[in-house]
Write a structure and sequence with these properties.
elongated; 560 residues; six-stranded antiparallel beta sheet; alpha/beta; six-stranded mixed beta sheet; 17% strand; Rossmann fold
């Protein structure tokens, strides 16, 4: 329950402190007096969006503080404990909004996040304002209202989680399939390129060896002639080098008796002669082994042409070509691996589709059960709000068809819409198409009456009297009084018939402060002031004996 609300420098509120109690508390005042600012302040301590426009002119920041009695609210204690915040019998929330746009939140004296505050706020106060009034006219929001009524949040959260897993698996599969399609377009080329390189059976260093062999064969005639001439010159012909060396060696050795150095030179020259003889023999044998094979020459030239062609396509060297083949083979292997991954994802997606489909069927059954209870509850509540004979129906339609690969979304497989017939004998039609503003107010009040029961300690109704007249306002006032027996109920209203049911009456009014600026204030009316205000609301002028008498009668009737 909301015990205290303190507001400072918020819009046209300079400083305001409210002490609130149980039962039905109403807020009245002229249009523009600042009633909506109180709702804005409460919205801030519930985690609503902080706008710098709310900060009072010439002030650096606005502050809102709220004190709640949370004894018995185990959900609040669990939430605070899970966030590492202190838990006490009372809960203190402070929200500071600076003109710079920065917002600070304190829960029981500790800094907290807006996300935590918003989660906490949903456990403390339920606000019915114009946005919720409009929600009844939006078919897409009916499913959330049914789920809230049926307490299906855990089930819908599980469905949303399943759908998220399914969507993730489907995205992964789509990605792999796209990769395979793209790779498949290239596969034929890749396989050709890999085969083309493989067929050549390239070897490292092969090109240098072939180039050398090509040079020998290309110049074989010249090489052969040089080998033959050289062998003859050194060894075979008359006056050959070896013959002349032998004579010189003999002469030097004979003269060695006169000079030992000549003998040494002769020995060295004799060694050289042995080397020359070996070279001559090798040249002779080399010439015998060398063949001018034109067929081999063509074969080598063809092989070198092929290597040049491959290098032109795949790299500057044979190593580059072989590296390119490895890259191509890795790509082909990746395609094969992607196909295996695709099969895995297809199996995973099939399993998730089956699971999500089966779960969505369970969710539909839970909604159908909740829809029956909602129908009964709404019709009972509406009968008490002067709409006897109204037929309310929750229409649940399965989306998709049996031919679909899947027929579910994050919210399940259902499309939900509220149907109504406000007069006996009429056909059911979309609530958004046939209900008047006053009927929508009563339907939402009925919805609040049966959905919030025992869940949230405080209910706030912002101008629930929209579109209804005096007679129906009395009925709505009675319903608000009934709801306030189970919840602290705050109501902003313009209807005296509703005010008559109030346990506490707060007047919101403007005044001029010492600085000459208009400010908004709130004061709790005493019993006499309460009656005078009702009389003023009835007569639109200063209370008269007649309007005061009428006001007493209204309050008396409401009390009874």
């Amino acid at each position: 329950m909301l015990l205290e609300l303190n507001i400072k420098d918020l819009a046209i509120i300079d400083e305001l402190s409210l002490v609130l109690g149980p039962g039905l508390s109403v807020f009245t005042g002229e249009t523009g007096a600042g009633k909506s600012i109180i709702i804005d302040a409460i919205d801030l301590v519930l985690g609503g969006r902080a706008s710098t426009e709310l900060v009072r002119s010439s002030r650096d920041e606005a502050r809102v503080e709220a004190l709640f009695d949370v004894s018995g609210l185990s959900g609040v204690a669990a939430l605070l404990d899970g966030a590492g915040l202190p838990t006490e019998e009372n809960l203190f929330i402070k929200r500071i909004v600076s003109r710079s746009g920065r917002s600070r939140i304190f829960i029981n004296g500790s800094m907290a996040s807006a996300t935590l505050l918003a989660t906490l706020g949903r456990l403390l106060i339920d606000v019915y304002g114009q946005s919720e009034h409009q929600a009844l006219t939006k078919v897409e929001e009916h499913i959330d209202m049914l789920d809230d009524f049926g307490g299906l949040q855990p089930v819908t959260d599980a469905m949303a989680g399943l759908y998220q897993s399914w969507s993730s698996a489907k995205r992964d599969l789509d990605k792999v399939q796209a990769e395979i399609r793209k790779a498949s377009e290239d596969r034929e080329l890749l396989e050709f390129q890999s085969g083309e390189i493989e067929e050549t059976a390239l070897l490292g260093g092969e090109e240098d060896e072939l180039t050398r062999e090509h040079g020998r064969l290309k110049n074989a005639e010249r090489i052969l002639k040089t080998a033959e001439d050289g062998s003859s010159m050194l060894y075979g012909a008359d006056g050959a080098v070896l013959e002349k060396l032998a004579r010189l060696v003999g002469e030097l050795k004979e003269l060695a008796r006169y000079d030992k150095e000549l003998g040494t030179l002769g020995g060295r020259l004799e060694s050289a002669a042995f080397e020359v003889e070996d070279v001559a023999t090798t040249l002779r044998d080399y010439g015998g082994t060398l063949e001018m094979d034109s067929g081999r020459l063509i074969e080598i030239e063809d092989r070198l042409d092929l290597i040049i062609k491959l290098k032109r396509k795949y790299g500057e060297t044979i190593k580059d070509v072989l590296d390119k083949k490895q890259e191509i083979d890795d790509r082909l292997l990746s395609i094969t691996g992607s196909e295996g991954r695709r099969r895995e994802l297809e199996e995973k997606l099939l399993a998730l589709t089956k699971e999500a489909t089966e779960f969505s069927v369970k969710l539909t059954k839970a909604r159908e059960k909740a829809a029956k209870a909602l129908k009964k509850g709404i019709e009972t509540e509406l009968a008490g709000l002067g709409m006897q004979g109204t037929v309310f129906q929750v229409d649940i339609e399965r989306i998709g068809s049996n031919d679909d690969a899947y027929s579910f979304s994050a919210t399940g497989s259902d499309k939900v819409c509220f149907m109504i017939a406000t007069n006996k004998g009429e056909d059911l039609k979309l609530l958004s198409k046939v209900a008047s503003g006053g009927e929508l107010s009563r339907i939402m009040l009925a919805m609040k009456g049966i959905t919030s029961r025992g869940l949230v300690p405080t209910l706030i109704f912002d101008e629930v009297d929209t579109g209804i007249g005096a007679l129906m306002s009395k009925v709505v006032g009675g319903k608000l009084k009934e709801v306030s027996a189970m919840h602290q109920t705050l109501c902003i209203t313009h209807m005296a018939q509703i005010v008559a049911y109030a346990d506490n009456h707060y007047l919101v009014e403007k005044s001029e402060n010492q600085e000459g600026r208009v400010v908004s204030g709130v004061r709790k009316l005493k019993e006499k002031e309460h009656l005078e205000r009702i009389a003023w609301m009835l007569g639109g002028d200063e209370p008269t004996g007649t309007t005061l008498k009428h006001a007493r009668e209204m309050v008396g009737a409401a009390s009874s």
